[in-house]
Structure to design on (77 residues):
């Protein structure tokens, strides 16, 4: 690692961490935007009918399938 690249890394962070933090922030921002869209839809239209809903067990299984496949690998818990 050159002295120049070391200087570009903010104090207290190691090389690669700023980029990882920015990627995590972008993913969190996207999730927040998705949630805001859902909440705005509920506020404008009310709750969806049961036919439009996903059972909690199915949503849970889908989430774990994405986690195990590495789809959410960049997301910080």
């Amino acid at each position: 690692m050159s002295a120049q690249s070391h200087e570009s890394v903010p104090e207290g962070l190691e090389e690669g961490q700023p980029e990882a933090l920015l990627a995590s922030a972008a993913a969190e921002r996207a999730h927040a935007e998705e949630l805001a869209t859902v909440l705005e839809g509920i506020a404008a239209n009310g709750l969806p009918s049961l036919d439009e809903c996903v059972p909690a067990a199915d949503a849970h299984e889908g989430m774990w399938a994405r986690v195990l496949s590495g789809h959410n690998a960049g997301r910080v818990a």
